[in-house]
Amino acid sequence: MTQTAPAQPTTRNSARGWILGGGAALALIALAVVGATLPSPAAPSTRWNVVLITLDTTRADRLGCYGYGRADTPTIDALSRQGVQYLRCYSPVPVTLPSHSSLLTGLDPPRHGIHTNGPDALSADAETLAELLHGEG
């Protein structure tokens, strides 16, 4: 796999660090979902097997696959070598619940209704990935 540029170091409290971390987490999630949805050659099936792995508060500039020399992330680094590595990923918001809600619905916070980690409720018309997959069997 060819990288076009190493990740730029960020400060611990910068918004860019949060966005890069969220982007790295979303990239790893997308990688896991795509890999998990491929049918097994040993057991062909018309149904998908999906494993969704999410990471919270993981910064791209602290992962070996993004150029950090002192990283202790061998499993993530190996997964990155076997799949697609994104250099520019963005989270719609640097807060866990609304960011995950966006990932699982494909909608931004104003459309799915989750704005904080508080008592917000998901919009009734926001279909989640779980509902979509359930509908497919």
UniProtKB/TrEMBL annotation:
| Protein family | Belongs to the sulfatase family.
Name its species. marine sediment metagenome
- GO molecular function annotation: arylsulfatase activity
Can you tell me where the transmembrane regions are? Answer: 18-38
Pfam families, A to Z: Sulfatase
Q: Which UniProt keywords apply?
A: Hydrolase, Membrane, Transmembrane, Transmembrane helix
Q: Where is the Sulfatase N-terminal domain?
A: 49-137
Official protein name in the record: Sulfatase N-terminal domain-containing protein
